[in-house]
Amino acid sequence: VAVIKFCADRLACVSEHFAGELAGALGVATPTCRLTRRDEPSNEWFAALNAARGVFARSMSSSEVVQNIAVDDDDVFETFRSAESLAACLEKHECALVQRFVVGAPFFSPRSARLLSLQNPPLARSARGNLAGALGRVFVLDCLLANADRMPCAELGWRGNRGNLLLSNTKEKEGCFVLCAIDQSVARRVPRRRAAEDA
After folding, report:
1. pTM (two decimals)
2. Of 181, 188, 107, whose CA–CA distance to 141 is shortest?
3. Is 4:34 a contact under the CB 8 Å cutoff?
4. Phi and psi (nearest 5°) for 99?
5. What residue spans of 38-182 are helical by DSSP H?
6. pLDDT along the chain (199 residues), means of 10
7. Reduced to 3 DSSP states, what percent helix, strand and coil does the chain have, rounded to the nearest 5?
């Protein structure tokens, strides 16, 4: 499963891609990500646009298909709606990020706390030590990026966004968790009041 993320403009896409590269240099786990543009010679953009338009057109033109969709068949309806939405985004934007989907739970959530507490004591100690180091690397990354939208920190005035840090058990080895930072970018212009407070 891939995530296609459309940003406000090309600079925002490049900024997030660059932040992902910085994260990798600091040892912070992030979804694998690549930049795709409308003007690329590979025509990947227009292949996706034509496929989305095709799915939506078939849903609109085929009365048989529309009549066969049951009212409670949310999956089929959602597919058509998603195709329409994807086509609209591809028509509107020039650039997007294609990212690997990360299966996990927000780190600051009861579900993640339960996952960690279910481990037997030696594994739990080891996992907690690894997670403490991972949290430290994420904190350094956020300080570098001036990113107040991940880890809450009252001392720095960061409100945080608990969904931007996931606990993922993607390794085969039991009890091995990965802390994955998602949705980062380089702040381009800090608000004046915030800059004054930071100074």
Report:
1. 0.76
2. 181
3. no
4. -125, 155
5. 44-61, 63-68, 74-92, 110-117, 121-145
6. 88 90 94 91 88 82 52 66 90 93 88 70 67 92 90 89 85 69 76 72
7. 55, 15, 35
